[in-house]
Design brief:
Blueprint: E1 2-5, H1 10-20, E2 27-31, E3 37-41, E4 47-51, H2 57-69, E5 74-79, H3 98-107, E6 112-116, E7 131-134, H4 137-145, E8 152-155, H5 161-171, E9 175-177, E10 180-184, E11 187-190, E12 201-209, H6 213-224, E13 229-237, H7 243-249, E14 252-258, E15 266-268, H8 271-279
Parallel strand pairs: 1-4, 4-5, 5-6, 6-7, 8-9, 8-12, 12-13, 13-14, 14-15
Antiparallel strand pairs: 2-3, 10-11
Helix pairs in contact: 1-8, 4-5
The chain binds ribose-5-phosphate.
Ribose-5-phosphate binds near residues 208, 209, 210, 211 and 212.
Length: about 280
């Protein structure tokens, strides 16, 4: 078994290979003169773990090409961050079910799929092959333990509640959740709620930080309620439109994410949970 990854998951791919006690396949990526992507893999094994986060359309095409290049091998696909998963319903007539379209395309040529903290586990059924989702809640909690002794963990909405519970479990910390309503792509409103956070270190945790709007709105509310410091932790650090600076200017002390999207501040690695799932 060998591990092969797209340009977007190179570091994570190498870590997973290390955990599995195997090597990585060298891949050369380039472009044709018209901009189309090209890649060429080194020698493959009979069994391959293909790793690629779908962080944008370029990454999606690259992953599809990589799967096709591995067509002679038996493949397990790992999608650490699955972009397009948030359009998992037809909210308005005429819209695509993007999660279904992407899952269907990725499933061709692989025998099973592993995702990490996918936005909604119902998306797994669109792969139409065995698919499991693993979670980094406990790992994120373990990472927080290194710098905080007794934080209060807050989920900004009901969707992030289970993840926040897992984070809190790592240190047996207090936790609660807020109720968020999305107004537009980068604006949310959060219902006022009395939390017992006066003079406490608070960590707002979410599966994704995209524009940072959710965390910034929750943070300003909790500073008003007397929080001493506010920190943010997520699995998938999308950080679009200057989100990192936006959060720092909103008074967020530390911002951490995992390496499902490789960032300078990816302090939690998904390699362990992925390697375990591969071996199951
Ligand atoms: C949405 O349901 C997700 O769980 C996140 O809360 C959302 O993606 C965060 O987006 P933003 O950072 O743009 O507020």
């Amino acid at each position: 078994m060998k591990v092969i990854s797209t340009e977007y998951s190179q570091v994570l791919g190498a870590k997973v290979a290390e955990r599995l006690g195997t090597g990585v396949v060298d891949v050369r990526f380039s472009r044709f003169p018209d901009g189309e992507q090209y890649l060429r893999t080194g020698p493959l094994d009979g069994k391959t773990v293909i790793i690629g986060s779908v962080v944008n359309s370029h990454a999606l095409i690259q992953l599809l090409l990589l799967i096709d290049a591995c067509s002679k091998s038996e493949n397990i696909l790992v999608v650490p961050y699955m972009g397009y998963a948030r359009q998992d319903r037809q909210f308005n007539e005429g819209e695509p079910l993007s999660a279904r379209a992407v899952a269907g395309a990725l499933a061709r040529g692989v025998s099973r799929v592993i995702t990490v903290n996918i936005h909604d586990e119902r998306v797994l059924s669109h792969f139409r092959i065995p698919a499991v989702n693993v979670t980094l809640g406990y790992d994120v909690g373990r990472e927080l333990k290194k710098s905080l002794t007794d934080p209060f963990i807050v989920a900004p909405d009901d969707g992030a509640r289970y993840f926040a519970e897992q984070v809190a479990l790592a240190g047996k910390w207090d936790m609660d959740h807020l109720d968020k309503t999305r107004v537009s792509g980068d604006t949310v409103t959060i219902e006022p709620k009395n939390l017992d956070i006066k003079n406490r270190d608070v960590v707002i945790v979410d599966d994704i930080i995209s524009t940072g709007g959710t965390i910034a709105t929750a943070a300003s509310m909790m500073y008003r309620e007397g929080a001493k410091t506010i920190h943010a932790a997520c699995v998938h650090g999308v950080f679009t439109g200057g989100a990192y600076t936006h959060l720092k200017s909103a008074g967020i002390r530390d911002i951490t994410c995992s390496d499902t999207i490789e960032r300078a501040f990816s302090t939690t690695s998904a390699a362990g949970v992925i390697a375990e799932a591969v071996q199951e």
